């Protein structure tokens, strides 16, 4: 591989990661048209690496490539969220079963450390959006849960579906704090930190039945929260 091709590959990968992050955080809104010229300016890049990055993202479901129309951010819907969550529960619960069976002390230490970091970080920032540092720690905790599964494909699919779910969480959090009344917000409250602690304890106790039950409930809780929101913007997006 030449130096030029290596540089191109690195640039396209960095662009794909940057665009993906902006899609997950909803900085690039669901359904938004992705114009090459605008993206070149936004990410200070050339058109060819941008096209390559968009093509890569299309293969993972974050971007839609339309014949003769270019690219757009994948839309959101209640049907898709239910499908993502159902698939994620199947994959992550199986991966967790394998991790509990295969994981040793190093895995337990990694998991406990990931939980400790997550537990010390606030989920919401001053602007009531999800804190990026908490988001990274949250992904690391869920990744650590199944890291000893021994299956790179289960872990890779779980990561992809986790990122897809994260996009919906950003939508729900933004609209929950922007438009939901205090009365209706009370009915949507959940103790995410306690959910993580109960899950950690069940896993360290090697209680497969309880751990997988708690994980499934934890994953569905996020999706059910999004589906319960009735704000105009969310309701319209998820119909």
Automatic annotation (TrEMBL):
HTH gntR-type domain mapped to chain residues: 9-76
GO molecular function ontology, one term from the record: DNA-binding transcription factor activity
Coiled coil spans: none
Entry keyword Transcription regulation: yes
Pfam families: FCD, GntR
UniProt keyword annotations, A-Z: DNA-binding, Transcription, Transcription regulation
Cross-referenced InterPro entries: GntR_C (IPR011711), TF_FadR/GntR_C (IPR008920), Tscrpt_reg_HTH_GntR (IPR000524), WH-like_DNA-bd_sf (IPR036388), WH_DNA-bd_sf (IPR036390)
Name the UniProt record assigns to this protein: GntR family transcriptional regulator
């Amino acid at each position: 591989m030449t130096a030029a091709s290596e540089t191109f590959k690195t640039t396209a990968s960095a662009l794909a990661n940057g665009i993906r992050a902006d899609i997950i955080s909803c900085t690039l809104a669901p359904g938004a048209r992705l114009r090459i010229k605008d993206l070149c300016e936004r990410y200070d890049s050339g058109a060819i690496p941008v096209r390559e990055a968009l093509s890569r993202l299309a293969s993972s479901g974050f971007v839609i490539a339309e014949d003769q129309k270019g690219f757009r951010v994948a839309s959101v819907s209640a049907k898709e969220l239910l499908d993502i969550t159902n698939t994620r529960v199947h994959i992550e619960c199986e991966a967790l079963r394998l991790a509990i069976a295969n994981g040793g002390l190093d895995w337990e230490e990694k998991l406990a450390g990931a939980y400790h970091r997550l537990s010390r970080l606030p989920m919401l920032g001053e602007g009531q959006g999800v804190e990026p540092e908490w988001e990274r720690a949250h992904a690391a905790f869920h990744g650590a849960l199944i890291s000893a599964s021994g299956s790179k494909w289960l872990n890779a699919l779980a990561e992809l579906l986790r990122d897809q779910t994260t996009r919906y969480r950003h939508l729900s959090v933004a609209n929950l704090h922007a438009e939901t009344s205090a009365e209706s917000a009370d009915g949507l409250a959940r103790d995410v930190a306690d959910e993580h602690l109960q899950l950690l304890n069940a896993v360290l106790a090697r209680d497969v039945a309880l751990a997988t039950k708690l994980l499934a409930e934890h994953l569905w809780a996020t999706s059910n929260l999004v589906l319960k929101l009735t704000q105009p913007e969310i309701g319209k997006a998820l119909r």
